[in-house]
Write a structure and sequence with these properties.
alpha/beta; Rossmann fold; GMP Synthetase, Chain A, domain 3; 9-stranded mixed sheet; 5-stranded parallel sheet; 19 helices; 27 strands
């Protein structure tokens, strides 16, 4: 797919990246020639079909070039996070059996080399100048692009393309085996959605999530470029607000935490405005929510709403560049109140759902058909059903082949049912399907059973807590305990107002769900092992790390 597109669009910009104080661009033709050279260079150094190749890099052109080159020669790409600990690198190297690594920096080269232990690596490629095989050496390898194109035409759809190690919210990462067909099934599934967005030629996608994340690896690395969008690699969270305005992307994907931060910035900026501006903003928000949730606006309200669209919502849209066709949230539950805030202000925030084991996209809402209390309709080609215990089961060409070297975990995740056909993927999520829309209500294994025998959804309560502007992070506990407790990280400058936020949330909860005990905590971070690289809270890790705090709350 990718190399044939390079033939069709040789001069079209494919990638944009920041280097040496300026933006640079890579065309499709340059990408394809680099893929051919790197593929030839890896082959010359003994990389063979089936070999696993570790890829550790920030978002940059060399990532997708190396990734494509590895797959093109029949080897298996193993993308992993630059933020991984030494233990993480050691586990993935040992579990995957990778003897070749491609890394971006000297620091990462040292980390991977140390993690490989006494047996070492057969080949270590470094993108930036340093030890080992230099990236420039690979690019200088004589290559035959037409021959490589002819060769990849014969890659069977079922061939293993990559191993994506689940960062997960607990437990040892497992290597998810994704064949070519799984990622291509995702492309087929979102094709209608992309076409209906009708984005003009020259539109771009701002790539913010790590390319080693399953979502960004499939969607940002291959699928969106394949529809003609130029991929612009963000310089990081601190530059994102400025990049939205300067780059003016048509699409952005992010995790819910980013939307929480952006909302907090908008509200903080509003505090500095004059009373009239604040009043107009509040009215635009209220009418926008009415348009979504009812009751219907009257004639005068519709006229008022149209005026506020120009006075308020246009300014908000401009903060995001003014060309956004879709802001897609994934990776964790997006609180309907949070998405409603942006939608009411004229921004097309939509929630999707998936997991690494499913290509990874399973369903997505649409800007013109956005049911924000759900995760949207299933992609074309995806089949789903709800098991007797409420678990969401999924099957189709997007589903993984299993977990690498882990038949027991594979047997638990992929289960044959009496109806025959392909195995069903047990997602571990509890949900329901109404009118074709999938709604996720909880994680199956995270349900809390209190001492009184009551069953409580922690995801629901945590989502409500983090929807309050005073609370940045929340984890609730109570399994086998006499009530629900919450560990709460305040938003900046809001430490003294957390109790008020808890009181507001409790007023909307049933008696068995109400928070009886709470404790203000320092931030949960990736460095402490309490967040995944995509900023998802590792619930079980937090509960384990702060077990003593929780014990003290119940005394």
């Amino acid at each position: 797919m990718m190399l044939s597109l390079a033939r069709r669009w040789p001069q079209r910009p494919m990638l944009r990246f920041w280097r040496d104080g300026a933006w640079h661009s890579t065309s499709w033709a340059e990408y394809a020639l680099a893929v051919a050279a790197v593929a030839a260079g890896l082959r010359a150094r003994g990389v063979s079909p089936g070999d696993r190749v570790l890829l550790v890099s920030e978002n940059r052109p060399e990532f997708i070039i190396a990734d494509t080159a590895v797959m093109a020669i029949g080897a298996v790409s193993v993308p992993t996070y630059t933020t991984n600990t030494a233990a993480d690198h050691a586990h993935i190297l040992r579990d995957s059996g990778a003897r070749v690594a491609v890394v971006s920096t000297a620091k990462l080269a040292r980390a991977v080399r140390d993690a490989a232990g006494p047996d070492g690596l057969d080949v270590l490629v470094q993108m930036e100048p340093g030890d080992g095989v230099g990236w420039a050496e690979l690019l200088a390898t004589p290559a035959d692009l037409p021959m490589l194109v002819a060769e990849v035409d014969h890659i069977p759809p079922g061939r293993l393309a990559c191993l994506i190690y689940t960062s997960g919210t607990g437990g040892t990462p497992k290597g998810v085996m994704l064949p070519h067909r799984a990622m291509l099934a995702n492309r087929h599934g979102i094709a209608g959605f992309i076409e209906k967005l009708n984005m003009p030629e020259g539109s771009c996608y701002l790539s913010f999530l790590p390319l080693s994340h399953a979502y960004e690896h499939t969607v940002g690395n291959f699928l969106l470029p394949s529809f003609g969008l130029e991929v612009v690699y963000s310089r990081g969270a601190e530059k994102l607000a400025a990049e939205l305005q300067s780059i003016r992307p048509a699409m952005v994907t992010a995790v819910p935490r980013l939307f929480e931060v952006l909302r907090a910035r908008i509200l903080a900026g509003l505090e500095k405005e004059k009373p009239l501006a604040r009043k107009l903003f509040d009215r635009a928000l209220a009418l926008g929510l009415r348009r979504m949730d009812g009751p219907k606006l009257g004639l005068l309200e519709r006229l008022e709403d149209a005026v506020l669209d120009r006075l308020v919502r246009n300014k908000t849209r401009e903060r995001f560049g003014g060309k956004v066709a879709a802001l897609v949230s994934g990776g964790a539950r997006l609180d309907p109140g949070l998405s409603g805030f942006f939608i009411a202000l004229g921004l097309p925030v939509i929630q999707g759902y998936g997991q690494t084991e499913a290509g990874p996209v399973i369903s997505v809402n649409l800007p013109w058909d956005n049911r924000r209390h759900t995760v949207g309709r299933l992609l074309d080609g995806v089949e789903a059903r709800i098991a007797g215990d409420g678990e969401v089961l999924v099957r189709g060409a997007l589903v993984m082949d299993g977990y690498w070297n882990n038949p027991d975990a594979t047997a638990q995740a992929l289960v044959e049912l009496p109806d025959g056909g392909d195995p069903w993927l047990h997602t571990g999520d509890v949900g329901e399907i109404h009118d074709g829309y999938l709604r996720i209500t909880d994680r199956k294994r995270d349900i809390i059973k209190t001492l009184g025998g009551d069953m409580v959804s922690p995801a629901r309560i945590e989502g409500m807590l983090m929807a309050e502007p005073e609370i940045a992070q929340a984890v609730v506990a109570g399994d086998g305990r006499p009530g629900i407790a919450a560990l709460l990280v305040p938003a900046d400058g809001m430490q003294d107002k957390v109790a008020e936020a808890v009181k507001r949330v409790n007023a909307r909860l049933s008696s068995i769900e109400r928070i009886r005990f709470s404790k203000v905590m320092p931030p949960f971070t990736a460095e402490d092992g309490l967040l995944t690289p995509t900023m998802k809270i590792k619930r079980r890790a937090v509960l384990t790390a702060h077990a003593a705090v929780l014990d003290s709350l119940y005394r």
